Amino acid sequence: MTLIKYNPRFTGADDRTFSSFIDKFFNDSLRNVQSELTSFNPQADIAETKKEFEIELAVPGMKKQDFKIDIENDRLTISGERKQIEKTDDKNYHSVETYYGNFSKSFYLPENIKEDKIEASYQDGILKIVIPKDEKKELVKTIQIK
């Protein structure tokens, strides 16, 4: 026996025709494309060394003044907006695969960091945030059994 994922859109006998399948396919595809073009969620890489944490966001085509980086309640928030290039009448776009719009990404910070020493740089479309560790604060604690 094969399990089939439940899809509430295919409920009646009329929905099982080839024509209705094609209609649903194109309508759903267009709806997904429209929502993707209005949202931008940059990819993040997070790494850790003995001395620091590093967060890198892939955000090509932006300028460093397009970003805002905040720390509040042990949470680092990176936000910004990737603005759409102004379209002109002499260009006829056949395909637009680039994402535009506002974004906000948050990361919870551990207790063993030096908050006042966090640095950010932007080069070649990569926003890099370096969060140094505080060796004096250890996260590993041993609990004595009584």
From TrEMBL:
It comes from Marivirga atlantica. InterPro entries: A-crystallin/Hsp20_dom, HSP20-like_chaperone, Small_HSP. Gene3D superfamilies: 2.60.40.790. PROSITE patterns: SHSP. PANTHER family: HEAT-SHOCK PROTEIN 20 FAMILY MEMBER. Belongs to the small heat shock protein (HSP20) family. Residues 35-146 form the SHSP domain. It holds the Pfam family HSP20. This is Hsp20/alpha crystallin family protein.
